[in-house]
Design a protein that fits this description.
Structural class: mainly alpha
Distance between the termini: 55 Å
Helix content: over 70%
Largest sheet: none
Shape: rod-shaped
Number of strands: 0
């Protein structure tokens, strides 16, 4: 069994979607504070 340092597409998708959710939440929070 060989282990590569490149994650599978599903992991990349979950990682990117997680960052997107965090970014949207942070942006929404900043906008709410500024308003």
């Amino acid at each position: 069994m060989t282990v590569t340092s490149v994650p599978e597409p599903a992991s990349w998708a979950m990682l990117l979607s997680g960052f997107a959710l965090v970014g949207m939440a942070a942006r929404r929070r900043q906008r709410a504070v500024a308003a």
